[in-house]
Amino acid sequence: MAAINRPIEATYVIHDTVTAETNDYEDHTFCGVLFPVVCKDVLPLEKLLINSISVRGRLGPLTVWIYDQTSERTIAMDQTSWTKIYEKIHQPSFDKFCQLDLSGNPIVMRPGELRIIYIHSALHSDEAIVYDNRRKEKTYDDALLSILTGRAHLSPEPFGNVPIWGWGNAWRDHRQFVGRIEYGAIYKLWNPVTHLQFGPNFQDMTRTMFLCQRRLESPVSQLPDDVIFYILNMCRWDWADDTAKTIQKMNTNRKRATIRSIENGAEGRAHTSANHDTFRVRNVQSKSQRKVATTCFILIMFIVMWIFLK
Question: What mean pLDDT value characterizes the chain?
Fold first, then answer.
């Protein structure tokens, strides 16, 4: 029965914690920092869980907010459009990162999704949270997660429009998050419907298993399809030594093949249409030539008959 009712996602989070740590140049300190994070759609990932964020500075009353309406092109900078997932007072920590534990309410992301994280301190100080100037588009990038360039906030009031000194713009663009993000990944399990999301080595392994099953001299031929499905379902995505690079290369080649097929199809249709138009032009020319020849013949016969009658 278990072979038939196969799970579609792993029931565990990976045991080794993935820590995304950014560069730290300590360019600036102020009240807050806002930055996007992207869950990549490369590996056969079911979802990603951000369990903690670490920052440093004078800290104080910290809050963490999430904006997940990623279908919109613009970000609403009013508090009602954001969800507060963390609030706690922290002691100053200038040299070491202070961990903000989100495990009770983790940030859940699906492949291809984007979340905007806003970390803010209500402390009336320009040393609350450390952040950097933008040096490149991506502050951090790995096989699962990308941290992008964001904005700094200069107001001690969450989403406030007035900076701490009372005038001017409270937001600074082209700023980067400084700190750590710890997350875990829940991967998809192999099933026939997810076969193409796995790497080329895993797909070859699956194909080999079923080729062996079709050979009567192989011991694997004694196993029904559902049992082989169950065995493959229990193998992690990297069981056959696939990596993010091999899967990315496979996806790139697949896209190129699709584009090439579409282009070849369009060229074929264009060629057929051109041949049809050429035939039509030639056909029209032939009809016109026949009409001219017929007209000339009739005219010549009329002249001959007129001369004869005369």
Answer: 85
